[in-house]
Design a protein that fits this description.
18 helices; 2 domains; 5-stranded mixed β-sheet; two-stranded parallel ribbon; mainly alpha
Amino acid sequence: MISYFKSILLSRLFLLVLLFLAIRVPLILLGIPLTLQEVKAMVLGERLSENFMLYRDVYDTTAPLSAALFWVVDVAFGRNILMYRIIASTLIFIQGLRLNLTLNTNGVLNEKTYLPALLYFIFGSIFFEFDTLSPLLLGMTFLIFSIQYLIVAPKEGISNPRLFKGGFMLGIAALCYLPFLLFLIFGFFAVVFFAFNTFRSFLLFLCGLLFPYIVAFTYFLYADALPNFIQYNILSAWQFDIDLLLPGLDLLKIVALPILFLLFAVTFCAIYAPGLNYQLKFFQLMLIWLPIAALVTIAGQEISAITWLLFLPAFTYFATFLFLRSNFLWLTEPLFLILFGFAILTRYNTLLPPLPYVAINTSGLTTQSASKYYEVTNARILVLGDDINFYVANKAATPYINWQLAQEDFGQLNTYYAVFKISQNIATAKPEYIVDEKGLMPELRYKAPEVFGRYKHIGQNHLYKRID
């Protein structure tokens, strides 16, 4: 398979597309478990489609462009989970082809090939989580587009538009997923390696990076949401509190082999370093990519299988270099087939019997089907807690869809301002039900009886119903 996709004949591209569809489509049609990220995206999209303003009327940390995409999807398709997954697969497809085009047109490899796209498609599909639409996945698309403009050839070192576009693409990526701002370091080294007049070139790149943020700041300023935009989005990503969405051992089952192969490929590339100066600079730049991706992983706070996407462009480059330079086809072909088989096995893991050492616990990723989550359906609710499973069959009625941010109010019930703000929001929204996971309703009913006194406890699952 490696030798076949080394060629850039049109027939290879056609088969590459068919292979991508063969890997992705069956699992999508068979049914991927609904993830909590998708539920959160749908809830956010619904709130925004009801003409509520992000950060002002909806308290969440999601970056503005990702939230805008969720809003567009909800307006056009509603809670159509299939459309979310089609968009996710389309983004992976675009990323793989764009990275392949960048490597081929800029001559960073010894020959033009479809191997980068092949590797990206395979290792960008190693788990069902890569079929879910997320801010990280959306931002990665623009990050990959920025590479083309940052690796400016020496003869184009004074090309102002390219450097500005590179910074602009990176700024757009950060507006999709804030931790991508750390790739400013990557952009700095790209300017150092490839551009003339480093200081002036870096200023051009920086202007491009800041331009989307200037537009965003202006928009939220006029929308009376700028302070919350700064607090909820700009500042919230730098707490570095890590939360594993998959158990550590289960996460290793998915990414251990790709990481080991990445280390092997990096070692191979270091020994058989590219001969041309331009290629050597790109090799060094992709080495810098790896620690930056690790920093973005930590800044992202939530670590799961999809975090591997941050390392995938570097993996694709180093693996392609290895397969092109290695003269031992008898070794590389079986090695690739082993990696390919591993990727397919982990991707379809959820459909396999729960065998020891193979089963992966996805309870931290996917929604749960407990009866308490369906005690009420198709209702407008408020959940006092961080369990968003309640929103699978219901809609959010208040700005408090992110419990971490909601605690700024509900965690300070001993202050008049917090009680007043909560009362105003609840009185305006009038949720039909309140799910009191944190046991706050007795205190709320005591301190704001005109608002919360209208809710009567029903059932046995901390559920309160509004009685008009």
